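Homework help board

Subject: predicted structure for assignment chain

Our instructor gave us this sequence and asked us to write out the predicted structure in token form, then describe one feature. I got the tokens but I'm not sure how to describe them. Can anyone check?
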Amino acid sequence: MQHSPVATKKNSTKHKVKQGVSWGVDGAVLATSGAIGSESSPIPQGTSSFIPQGAGSRSCPGAPQGGGGGTDSYLETYDNVSSWLGTTCDKKGVGWFIAGECENGHRFAKELVCGKEWCGVCGEDGSIAHLRRFARWLPKAQQFESMGYFVFTIPQELRAKYRAKRDLAMLGHQVQELLKSYGYSRGLRRWHWFGDITRSGLRGDIPFHPHLNCLVDGGFVAMATLEKIKAAYASLLGADVVDVNYRYRVSPGKMVHSLKYVTRATFQDYDLDLEMAMELRGFRNMVVWGRGQWDGPPVWSLADLQGKPKAEVEGLDIEAINNLAAGVCPVCGKALTWGEALPIGLLTMVDKQVLGAGYYRLADVRPPPGLPPDIKQRLYWLDLIHRTEVRVAIERAEAEARAEAAESQGWWASLLNQN
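My token output:
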């Protein structure tokens, strides 16, 4: 396969970005440059570079309000294809977040990530992007008494027919309807793009290998039924022989493992298939079917997990993560209003509660009423930074006092020993 001349190798992708912000899928900031704040800012020295004027909007030209925006609109930001491929959040010094609050003054923060599978950060197992996908589906997996796991592979000789996202989306929907016809009325589906060979560090002629993972509410399947499903899938493809793999999970730990595996990244280097990397921009690859059938209570609890599966969910407040992703306050259920992009350095300066997957709860501070939103935002962060600075100063003073006391005690002990 010949690569498009507009793209460059991943390791040699160099580009200059004009002052401002490039936004990715789900409002993720991909890259930025240019100063934030100004010398005339009233913010104390040492913090001005972390708080943009007017809550950040004027320092981030073109950034959507509240980190929103469609999945395709951000593509117009760059005309150069290689720039889009290379704008990932594994670039040194790049980091952004947005802060949100509800009408009751509960405040939260969300780290912004590009979500690209070939990003050196987002493509890793256990990354923020991976954990958000995992957390999004985990409550649904908890409604499975047993989890059926189908993998539908496209034969190599037919893969050229499925190199457009339109065709991949259509085939995914057809497989979904096929499974519904066999009683799987609800489920989750996600494409993997390459096999595990791409994760071993091997290179060479690694072919595009799309295979559709489907997690369903099901258990044992008789071989005769599986053969019928395979025959129906072969008919969809117009193939004589197809590979459909099926297994099922009963223990919560194995369900968690399967879900973590399915939601991982597999397109970890765009040079594996540059044309497909570009084609898959904006592709919806986390699809749930069974509308109205996911309202039941969980049939197993995260407290049931042991060993490695338990460790995989520790530190994740799943309910809070999904509420925040839906724009709902996890404390009171009110709608959240998200602000605009702020440098990650500001978030590192303040006290916060880690909720997992790049979400945090911030201190609940109510600014004086009747002020413009940008002034309220600036006052809030100034107060938060001041609180942190006071706490750090107290801790430093206490540490110095302990050191002085220890030194004094040592001096007296030495003096007494001399006598």
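Reply (TA_rk): Your tokens look well-formed. For the description, you could write something like this. The longest helix spans residues 373-418. That's the kind of observation they're looking for.
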